[in-house]
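User: Hey, quick favor. My workstation is busy. Could you predict this chain's structure for me?
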Amino acid sequence: VVYKYLASVPSWLLILDNAESAEAIKEYLPKTLKEGQHILITSRSSEWVEVSRVDIKGLLPEKAVEYVQYM
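Assistant: No problem, here it is.
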């Protein structure tokens, strides 16, 4: 249902929060992304590889909004 909706809109941000591993979420990831389509994955695990990674200790709510808007 979610991907059917996302296919109908030109730009979106999908947030997968507190993912334990890439393997755990792989079935939820789209096969391809087009311009304007973004995925933000948060995890407490430090074992992620092959991804763009930003280590964040914690953000105030206004800084978190600013960070997501920048993406």
